Structures are given as C-alpha cells and as structure tokens.
Amino acid sequence: xxxxxxxxxxxxxxxxxxxxxxxxxxxxxxxxxxxxxxxxxxxxxxxxxxxxxxxxxxxxxxxxxxxxxxxxxxxxxxxxxxxxxxxxxxxxxxxxxxxxxxxxxxxxxxxxxxxxxxxxxxxxxxxxxxxxxxxxxxxxxxxxxxxxxxxxxxxxxxxxxxxxxxxxxxxxxxxxxxxxxxxxxxxxxxxxxxxxxxxxxxxxxxxxxxxxxxxxxxxxxxxxxxxxxxxxxxxxxxxxxxxxxxxxxxxxxxxxxxxxxxxxxxxxxxxxxxxxxxxxxxxxxxxxxxxxxxxxxxxxxxxxxxxxxxxxxxxxxxxxxxxxxxxxxxxxxxxxxxxxxxxxxxxxxxxxxxxxxxxxxxxxxxxxxxxxxxxxxxxxxxxxxxxxxxxxxxxxxxxxxxxxxxxxxxxxxxxxxxxxxxxxxxxxxxxxxxxxxxxxxxxxxxxxxxxxxxxxxxxxxxxxxxxxxxxxxxxxxxxxxxxxxxxxxxxxxxxxxxxxxxxxxxxxxxxxxxxxxxxxxxxxxxxxxxxxxxxxxxxxxxxxxxxxxxxxxxxxxxxxxxxxxxxxxxxxxxxxxxxxxxxxxxxxxxxxxxxxxxxxxxxxxxxxxxxxxxxxxxxxxxxxxxxxxxxxxxxxxxxxxxxxxxxxxxxxxxxxxxxxxxxxxxxxxxxxxxxxxxxx
Length: 680
Fold this sequence. Notes:
With 680 residues, the protein is of the alpha+beta class. 42% of the residues lie in helices and 17% in strands.
C-alpha cells in the first residue's frame, strides 16, 4: 500500500451492464472482494463510501433489447431491479447502487466532456467506420461479426474474439457482417472526438510507476499497453442509445460507454453524499480503490485516469486497482451467451440461507493473480469439511458444553495454565495478520488465516478435553470454556468481512455487539455471567443429491447449447406435384406392438388403417417401448412396396421426425381422426 496517510476511502465496484443477471464470475472477480475489503475498513472504524451501480448504455444493452423484442429502457429497468435485489439478498453492502441512465449522471458526464472539450483536450478526427446500408446506421464494434484472424472463429466480435480472447478492431475481421441485417457493411466517413492517450503517455507512465504495490497481474497488463505505445481513442460513437454529445455539430452521436461509465462512480457519490461529495473525489487525503475484473484493467488504470488528469478537478487516478482474473465453471469458461453460469438469483432460490457458503468458496478459490475454477464438488467439500467440520464444529462444541454444564452464561475463569496462555498468545496474532492480508488485497490468505483461528479453537479443546475435566475439576473446565467463548467472540469480529451472515449469527448467539477490529483477540470480550443463547448449528452438511441436482442443471444447459447449434439437413431436390400425388399417406392406429427378436432397433407393429389390418416393421425400438405406443395414431405411407426385415414382411412405413437431440417423434394429427383419413 502507499505510505501516504488517508482519512477516507472511496471504494468502487465495476458497473455491470444491465443486460443480464449476476453470476459467480462477477462475484468472484469483483463484488465479493470489494465487499470483504469495505467490511474490513468499517470494522477498523475507517470512513468509507462503497459505490457501484449498473452501466445502462452501450451496445450490449441494445443487443439484448433486440433479442428480447423490447426497448433498451425496458431492458435496463428489468435487469437493474433483478441485479440490485440479488446483491442485497446476497449481502453485498453498497452505500449506493445507482444507474447511469439517471438524468444526474447525464449532466455530470456532459459537464466533464465539455470541460475536456473547452480545454482543447480532444482531437477531432474524420475516419472511415463500418456502416450498414440496409439498416441505415453506423455499426459499433459489437454489431460487427466476422472471422477471427487469430483462431478462425467465424463469430468473433469487432472488438474481441470470445474463443481465443484476442483484442480486435472491426477492420481486422475477415468477411465482416452486420449483426443488424447480416449484410456486408461498407466503410463510410464519420467524425468523432478522440482522447489523445499517446500525448498523455509520459504522464500516465509516471502515474503507474508511482504505484509499485499494484498486483502483478494488473501491473503486467498495464505495462504491456504502455510498452506497445498508447494510441488516441474515440470518446464518441454513432449510436442512438447513450448520453448525447453536448456539441452543436454532434447530431446522432453519443459518448463512448467507457467515457461515461466510470464517471458513474463520481455521479453516484454525489447522489449519496449531497453537498459533501467533493472531498470523496477531490481531496488529497482521500484514497480511491477500484475493484474490477481483468477485462476492465485498461479502462481503470489508463483511460479513466487520463480523463481525470485532463479534466484537472479530480484525484488523478486510483491509489489501487486490485483486479482479479476470471473464474471458470466446471472445466469451461463462464459464458452468458451460452447460459454456462451459476446465476446468483437462481442460487439464492436453490440454496436458501447459504449466502456465506458461496462467499466462502468464492474467496477460497478467488482468481487473485490467475484464473481459477468453481466446481460443485469443491463447494460441497469446503462446506462439509471446513465450514461444518472446522468452524461450525468448534463453535457448536463450545456452546453445547457450556450450556449443558454451566447454563446459558459465560462461566467463571480461574487461573490460566501454560496451554491456555499459549492459545491466547497465538490468538492475539491473528487479527493483525488477517488485517495485513486484507490491506494488501490477499483475500484468500486472509480467509485461510481466519479458518486457522477456528482450527486453533479445535486444537485447544482437543488438548484440554473439557468433557473429561468436568467430572474431576469443574472449575478448570469452566476456565477452558470461558476461553473458548472468548475465542468465539473473536471469530464473530473476524468473520464480518468474509462471512457476514455467520458473523450476525454468532453475535446473536453470544448477545455480543462488539464489532471493533482492534478488540479481536482480547481476553475479556465476554464478561463472567454474560448470557449466551445457543441458536443452533452455524452450517449444515450438504448432501450428494443437492449437488447432483446442480450439476445436472449445468449438464442440461450444455445439452441445450449442443441442440441449439444443430442445423437442419439441407433441402432435397424439388419434386413435381405428380410425384407427391403418387404417395398414399393416411392415418392409422397402432393396435399391437412387440419387439423383434435378435434386433435392438426394430418393433413389429400391427396397424388398423381403416382399410385393413397390416404389419409394419419400424426402427423405433430405441425410442419407444412396445406397450407405450399401443393406441397411438400415426401417419402411414401405405403404398410403399412391401419388404422383408428380419424375416417379417413390412407393409408400409410410419413417418417420424427427429428432434434436435436425435430423438424420434411421431408425425400425427393434432386431434384424433378416423383411421384411413388421407393426408394431402
């Protein structure tokens, strides 16, 4: 961390596009780490503002609107409501969660744009951009798809290939096409306003160099951009959804979404703090920390600082940007377009009361410097072995032994032994060690140290065996349990950043209101005779069936993705009406069915055609059981020349259709009709 002394901290969490729900990748990459850090700062008694909201402009919004057949405003209204509720239910403790579609944000963004414009910070440039003649509009990068020049993916976007991760520009795509019309776009001249990052590179390099404490993954990506040499970047776009460019000659242009989105942090702070907002963005004694995922590093470490520097009225960039890498899911990249994700709102429905289990697993597997992976099996193991087996086990034993032998009160503490003092000495070290981890954004390490406190408690009980001592020396047992409850109170304080719902349960159980981090590890958190109340187990074991249901849910998603990618067989050569008229297709009913001996695929069917009763052999045995299809009406090609199959003469053919997953379905009337009715 910087050696500079700060009196307050502005903490921002990335503004997520309001075009879909929150998933565990978002949580692990940004929001859980931010919430842990903020809760820690509050426990330290520091002044902090926790700022976030939804990004409601840009092409992802318009694409979602087009897909759902609603307006962009309806899209952002829908997903803002869902996202903000999911965060609240999950316990992400924002001071404000706002929206970039609010008029106050438009005003702030236009003010900053004009500040840069009036100071001559922008460079006007006429360039050729892709234009869809059929749709009659310029195409943003995400509205252009084509073949990736790196990996050959035929559906790469104009800004990035999701298959190989390459950053692209639209003109690098091979065979580009418009997502609006499917047509090949043309190049057409248009004027935009660029921020000259190349001219600002020395200033940005000095800013980055002044923060050697940045995480290696963040510093590495930023240095890579700087080493390649920064280029001017357009801060306006030819779109109809976004914040209007406040210039007389800018009809049909809006601000680049990455110009206005980070300004949202400032706008939302102004909403939250009113007239007191400026010190959170302008005072020298304010620390600014951005929590983001790795795909947003360049915007928060270079472009937004460049905007703030050019404006001149704000803190010129964040003190730290502890970006995380990506979390994968069950061996595959999380993908919203493929529905390959664990969605937060669904998790909260499927796993009620288990917010802290997910928080624990996401922090324990946090992708702090490299990509990590979430699996449901690991989720179950960590819950059962660690939360239940270590943390829950210690707390439950301490409470049950106390309540059973001393009633609902903290027993008196007698003389301490060497074992007691060793435990207390060890315990006293943990708050500072955990604090150091959190101060330096090593949350996995901090969580591991927190669990070591629970392990310390279990080791202490194992070493002192109060259940045995009770019979021969109740006073000694009382001392052991007094110290165990003091340790439990420390857990209640230390759990707050990581497991806030668990911390609340512990405070309720102990009737304990102390939340000051500096008090953790102390000996007298609970006075002798202080009333406690065992409110039940902190955690419960998760059975295999629960996990299997979640895994099956993902497998079903994968299956649906495979089916969605299947394409119909190509059309056959045209036939004349006379050719079709030769076919005698009529309705018949299956009156009997049986398996054909020595065949896995064939069923022998008896059909009532209305004209006769006949036998048809059909290759449907792998899709239907004989008894299940008796009485089924079918479409029969009645004048197909007879042929022998497995020694049985088949007199016709039943018409079937294959669905996307390869299963056969009967072609049959929508309602029962008479046998022999012709199909034409």
